[in-house]
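Chapter review: from sequence to fold.
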Amino acid sequence: MKFHRLSSALASAGLAIASITGFSVVTFSSPITKAAIAQESAPTVTTTSSANQIALAKHLRKIGAKLYTAYWCPHCHSQKQRFGKEAAKQLEVVECDRGGVNPQTQLCRDKRVRFYPTWEINGKLYPGNHSLESIANFAKYRGNL
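The C-alpha cell string follows.
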C-alpha cells in the first residue's frame, strides 16, 4: 500500500511540474507489426521500365512464373531493379521470409527454395540473380529486350 501511495504522489508531482513548465507529452502510437517494419525496410525499385521489360514481365506472369524472394535480400532487389518499377509490379513475387509482407513460407519450403532470388519458370527452379536475357531464355520468350 505504501508503494501505491508513493507512486501516486510521484505521478501527481510529475503532472504538476509538467503543468508549471508548460511541458507535455502525448503519444499515440499504433502497434508496429513485423510486416510493417519489413515493408519499410525493403528497398523500393527506382529504375524505370522499358516497354520491352514490361512485355517480358507480362509474359512471365502469363506463363505462371514466380520470383521467390526475401525482403532483406540485396540480390532480390537487384533482380527487380533490372526490370524497373513498372515491370516489377507485373511479376508474381513470393515473399519467403516469415517477417516479410504476405509471407508464403510454406510454399517456399514446398518448392525447396534454398537461395534468393529463385525463379520458377515452366516448373523448373533457377536460383540466382539473372540477366533479363537469361530469364527470357528460361521462359522461351521471343520478344525484344
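Two observations follow directly from the output. The first strand starts at residue 66 and ends at 69. Residues 40-138 form a domain with the Glutaredoxin fold (CATH 3.40.30.10).
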